Amino acid sequence: MNVNAVLVAITLALLTCGPRCIYSDDQRLLVNMTLVRNASALGAFCLDGSLPAYHLHRGFGGGARNWLLQFEGGGWCNSTKSCLDRANTRRGSTRYMSKWEVFSGILSNNASLNPDFYNWNRVKLRYCDGASFAGDAVYKNGTSLLYFRGQKIWEAIILDLLPKGLGQARKALLSGSSAGGLSSFLHCNNFTKYLPSTASVKCLSDAGFFLDERDISSNHTMRSFVKDVVSLHGVEKNLDENCTASYLNFPELCFFPQYAMKFITPPFFILNSAYDVYQFHHILVPPSADPQGHWNRCKLNPAACNPQQLNALQEFRRGMIVAVGLSYKYSRRGGFFINSCFAHGQSESQDTWFAADSPRVHNRTIAEAVGDWYFNRRATKEIDCPYPCVTTCHNLIP
Ligand SMILES: *[C@@H]1O[C@H](CO)[C@@H](O)[C@H](O)[C@H]1NC(C)=O
Ligand SMILES: *[C@@H]1O[C@H](CO)[C@@H](O)[C@H](O)[C@H]1NC(C)=O
Ligand SMILES: *[C@@H]1O[C@H](CO)[C@@H](O)[C@H](O)[C@H]1NC(C)=O
Ligand SMILES: *[C@@H]1O[C@H](CO)[C@@H](O)[C@H](O)[C@H]1NC(C)=O
Ligand SMILES: *[C@@H]1O[C@H](CO)[C@@H](O)[C@H](O)[C@H]1NC(C)=O
Ligand SMILES: *[C@@H]1O[C@H](CO)[C@@H](O)[C@H](O)[C@H]1NC(C)=O
Ligand SMILES: *[C@@H]1O[C@H](CO)[C@@H](O)[C@H](O)[C@H]1NC(C)=O
Ligand SMILES: *[C@@H]1O[C@H](CO)[C@@H](O)[C@H](O)[C@H]1NC(C)=O
Ligand SMILES: *[C@@H]1O[C@H](CO)[C@@H](O)[C@H](O)[C@H]1NC(C)=O
Question: Which domains does the chain have, with CATH numbers?
């Protein structure tokens, strides 16, 4: 959008949706960034030392006292080198981020695009720490300085939002996608403690159910990656203490949702594809496990997978179903929606969240399934049939 378009849109905004948002030419809702000025008092900084930020679009009508918080995703950094690189990008610094974010899917303010949450206060928490909002450390060596302060960023944003109405919330949903979906697991218990005891508080993870599975060469690639992230960022002390107490010699396992779940008290919803493409490409078949590139065609197009490759994918799906099932032994009020689309993140894109042709399981869209669960309209424990049976998928392969 050029400068003139912004000015026109801002003028429009004052007429249509208040000072914090505008509509772009194609009717997309754009929401202004708020820097958390008080964050420095808490030592809450992005990797590069910049202030953390969020985008808030106010609720209205019946939703005026309800709050949806959505953690942004974007992978992790696992070494000083990769974190220094990240510090100079939008993933590690608010300096490089877009100051206006598109609010679509679960963040949309349009009832016909987001039937249950459109009139809530909706907040997007920007991700700039590299460890799912869970680290607390600093790296310094004379020439380089890195802030691993995700946990502090989480606290600073909550403290900033409480006086803006979050502190009087009636209903709340802590949500997030990808690395942000993982944050939702890690902060779900802590979130409830800030809210009135009378509030209905639930949590949702979209594409955040990262599995502790071996890769196709039988290596624990993901587990050792997670171990590096946890130790570099000082995450361990922020993991659930009852969880780390029960995995004494492997506290980093509590970064994996499948182990953390049974310690989470609020009702939890897991939205994930059984063939999540991030997990397919980085957990099941990381480049290190396929140096010859035998999987390259299959990674780009599931129809090009040979029978052994399909087998490995079906095994992975079975592993996810077992892990989800075990997680819900402890949570009767939880829900899940495990579909079979080759995708990663389905709540923030309108096409996958709620549209005429969006993915369905038993004829329910993701928006309907999540809404039915949140408002206790209907139990929601959906598992899609295995690939290639599905016809409603948008296979979104990067
Ligand atoms: C955007 O947000 C900043 C800081 O929160 C504020 O100063 C500015 O007026 C806002 N701009 C618009 C157009 O809403
Ligand atoms: C972990 O860090 C190393 C060293 O910077 C890097 O080579 C590797 O790609 C990283 N792994 C991932 C999965 O990002
Ligand atoms: C809401 O979305 C519907 C369906 O896309 C569209 O027809 C309508 O114009 C939108 N309303 C607003 C206020 O943007
Ligand atoms: C500090 O760390 C960075 C990244 O690891 C490295 O490039 C730099 O040479 C180090 N500086 C010193 C003084 O060790
Ligand atoms: C920022 O911190 C100061 C001092 O702790 C406090 O008085 C002020 O209310 C805070 N502002 C916000 C927006 O939280
Ligand atoms: C949430 O977690 C942080 C970090 O562990 C802690 O300092 C804070 O007191 C917790 N908040 C509440 C309300 O328990
Ligand atoms: C994976 O495991 C094999 C043995 O199964 C080992 O030779 C190889 O070094 C491992 N690769 C990585 C990247 O850890
Ligand atoms: C750990 O478990 C005990 C006993 O069930 C509980 O009182 C405590 O709040 C739990 N701690 C955390 C951090 O969840
Ligand atoms: C699926 O749901 C739509 C409404 O969302 C309805 O119009 C349609 O008839 C349903 N199809 C079946 C096969 O139940």
Answer: 26-383 (3.40.50.1820)
